[in-house]
Write a structure and sequence with these properties.
Blueprint lengths: L1 E4 L2 E4 L2 H8 L11 E4 L2 E4 H9 L8 H10 L3 E3 L13 H9 L6
Antiparallel strand pairs: 1-2, 3-4, 3-5
Length: 103
């Protein structure tokens, strides 16, 4: 499959990607990821290995689009959990005593 990453055309195949990533240790995940074989790689690491370009030269979206078209499972950035409300010491003490806490 022909795809454009960082304004350069690349002919990528599923088997070619599997072969390129063989023996590459996945870095720690901090954002979008791609599952290749049994390993989960950061998208930028995959793009760097496949294109041999600096990670600043391409976007994660370009690599995600190419990997999705090749049939790999891609994961987006996880949604941040809603912040939980922290009780004040007075509210905590009221809750422990069984009295209704003031809002």
């Amino acid at each position: 499959m022909r795809c454009v990453i960082a304004r350069f055309p690349f002919d990528l195949t599923r088997n070619g990607v599997l072969e390129s990533m063989k023996g590459i240790k996945p870095e720690q995940l901090s954002g979008e990821s791609v599952i290749i074989g049994r390993r989960t790689y950061p998208v930028k690491q995959v793009g760097q290995v496949l294109t041999r370009q600096d990670r600043r030269d391409f976007s994660a979206g370009e690599v995600l689009r190419a990997m999705t078209q090749l049939g790999f499972t891609c994961r987006e950035l996880p949604q941040a959990a809603a912040p939980t409300r922290v009780r004040t010491p007075m509210q905590q003490a009221s809750a422990m005593l069984g009295a209704p806490a003031a809002a």
